[in-house]
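Quick one: structure for this chain?
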Amino acid sequence: MRSTIAFLLALSLTLVPAFAAQDPFALPVGTVVIDAGHGGHDPGASYSWPFAGGMVYERDLTLDIAKRLEVLLTLSHPEIEVVMTRSSDVYLSLGERSAIASALHWGGKGALFVSIHINSALATSASGFEVLTKKQEKQVVFLDEATPAANIPLFASHSQIQLNRLLNHRNLVVASIFEETLDSQLVTARSRGVKEQDLWVLNQCRMPAVMVELGFLSNEGDAKNLTSSQYRQRLAQVLANAIERCL
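Got it. Here's what it folds into:
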């Protein structure tokens, strides 16, 4: 998997124009968007475990990890604007999540979108974490009526094709950083690698974006970890460490 990522990074570098020093997606990060997956009437993955007292819902775990991550980032990097797509058990459509991110003023700096999810599978043997990024062929629109005026200078000097090439490259860099950090710091968890997937919320992101699937509720070992508040705190810390490497 890592050889595949290295190949994709090398390939994407050949597509990045010579003016990559002005790449808006490689600027020092000033805004981090934390997206807790699902919520409200959308529970996400669910599974019943006796040790957890019954049904466990993805929406609750993602929100708990996201709120812990928000606290850690706010304390360690007060200079960064941390934005939560949701801070309570409410439903947000994928469009609403993307709109929150798209409406942000970057303030001349870079931005990062991190979506937190928990996996599930029919095979209870499936376990571990994975880092997802958008399909490279999916084209993002950067300049339209929803673009904040303050962000226009970041995009206006590049064509749509150039911007998408630059974003694709940065997505691969960020995804690789997240995978390496999770793999090295969650020593008992299995890495399932970095994968490109056709996911609406990632396809619509105008900033570097990853989705992290932090374990399988359908796997007993993963579920025992995920239902532990201490482990969720550890996950939040590792995610904070990964974000810090992207700043």
